[in-house]
Amino acid sequence: MKTVRLTAAQAMVRYLSVQRNHDGEDFFGGCWAIFGHGNVAGMGEALHGAGDSFPTWRGHNEQSMAHAAIAYAKASNRKRAMAVTTSIGPGATNMVTAAALAHVNRLPVLFIPGDVFANRAPDPVLQQIEDFGDGTISANDCFKPVSRYFDRITRPEQLLTALPRAMAVLTNPADCGPVTLGFCQDVQAEAYDWPESFFAPKKWKHLRPRADLQQIEDAIGAITSVKKPLIIAGGGVHYAQACDDLRDFAHRHNIPVAETQAGKSALPWDDDLNMGSIGVTGASSANAIAEDADLIIAVGTRLQDFTTGSWSLFKNPDRRILSINVAAYDARKHDAISVVGDAKVTLAELTNALADYRAGAVDPALKQSWMDAVEGVTAAPTGNALPTDAQVIGAVQRSTDENAIVVCAAGGLPGELHKLWKAARPNGYHVEYGFSCMGYEIAGGLGVKMACPDRDVVVMVGDGSYMMMNSELATSVMLGHKIITVILDNRGFGCINRLQMATGGESFNNLLDTARHVVPSAIDFAAHAGAMGAIAEKVSSINELEDAMVRATEADRSYVVVIDTDPLPSTEAGGHWWDVAVPEVSVRPSVNEARKNYEAALKKQRPGD
Prior knowledge:
Elements: E1 3-7, H1 8-17, E2 19-20, E3 28-33, H2 42-50, E4 56-58, H3 62-75, E5 81-86, H4 90-93, H5 96-105, E6 109-115, E7 149-153, H6 159-170, E8 178-184, H7 185-188, E9 191-195, E10 202-203, H8 213-224, E11 229-233, H9 235-239, H10 243-253, E12 257-259, E13 274-277, H11 284-292, E14 295-299, H12 305-308, E15 320-325, H13 328-331, E16 337-340, H14 343-353, H15 364-378, H16 389-398, E17 405-408, H17 413-420, E18 429-431, H18 440-451, E19 457-462, H19 463-468, H20 472-479, E20 484-489, H21 494-502, H22 525-531, E21 535-539, H23 542-554, E22 559-564, H24 589-602
Parallel strand pairs: 2-10, 3-4, 3-5, 5-6, 6-8, 7-8, 11-12, 11-14, 12-13, 14-15, 15-16, 17-18, 17-19, 19-20, 20-22, 21-22
Antiparallel strand pairs: 1-9
Helix pairs in contact: 1-2, 3-5, 3-18, 10-14, 11-15, 16-17, 16-23
């Protein structure tokens, strides 16, 4: 057996650099790295030696560079991914939030945080977490509940089994999610005689498991026995590259489609059967059909509470759920008729098996009425009042190419975008709403641009999220990956402020002007963005915003446009109830009234049905 002598870190990097996806492309788009004492000597030397064969990208924050890696994977439909390495201690724990985001959204990312010394000779090392009752614990154990696979590398040869296991998770559509390999810092530098065969290029096939024949028969029986089915398209439609199959299935059998946040853009917005967004942030057209549907065909979706209106949306007493999902865990939720299989294969199989079956007619007035409402709320204002989020969305939509990708994550904007954005092409809508993580937006936009360099990327972010995490704007400039960022400044956390007031509370500690302070906030976002190397300007009207978007599109580097917005209004059309518990006891009448309304709404839930 031929061997090659390498350090464990060098072996890891070499192995990762020769992994391929089913199209023959490099599976990894490189490694994000912030070096510290836990990874600079071992991983740092290994990555330097790899050069362009496994490029290293430098971020400014461990969490945000991990977000960029995750967005890269999402924009690549999980066909490609990135690795992220940090030191031990805060460098590692800064990534735990990103790991949770990847876990919730079923997205592949490889975390390689440095770890303590396996030989324990210098214990406790700088930044080491010591568990008084367990000597095997380190800070990296925080990753265990938010990783699909976790391992701690305490000997070099453990990589011979750990790395193939990691790849199996990252490339498996059912098990896909974050992998964490805590890499002991002394082990990174240890040498070992590795079999040369370990570094032979490997192609990981895209698995498309077929559903059990009995499950297919059950699905056929369920569909042919109803007249008013509704398809809910989730992110799994994109990951299975099943958008065309979904369209064929829906049109052949005349079944309307509603889209989750992750599923949006599976069908073009102007497709006759695309009834719009579903649930709490849903279109009135989609929600009206959902309320009356006798069969919910969930394709590639977790059916989270925003999708189901906290399980109060589906009101037909005879309704059933048919769940098509490659992950058995998701397919079996809520006593659904389960079809565990790849969405593309399953939809094609059902399309043929259902033959001439067609559901009842879909009232075209439902969608037309909704689109009229969209046009109304997104039109430019006629007065001088501060614009709403919806009006800003309308301006960005009108001045953006249909091939552009809009990126967002948290606050009120995802709800407004879900309702109002007209996605014309698959993957043109990139909103992280599984974990709804503030701070994802700009880093995510960078990752999207790295995955899709030929498409414009427009990041829409509120001032609150921008303040939480903005440093990768500088990275986008440094790397030459241009993103357009629109900052909507409503002076605080406007979305939660509205929720606070809707549950009977007073505006408190959410908006900057109702929080405790000595000096009033006066943040100059344009100056801040400009200081990081972006071209930046502030506009004072919707018309000025549209003009600025033209300049941003033509610019040669990242561009930021800032606009002040009204924190109070949101789109009243569409939407649905969401379960947010209201205090049972309060001295304030507004809270007591909100509790009374809450208790009445709870009676409409059907969580176990």
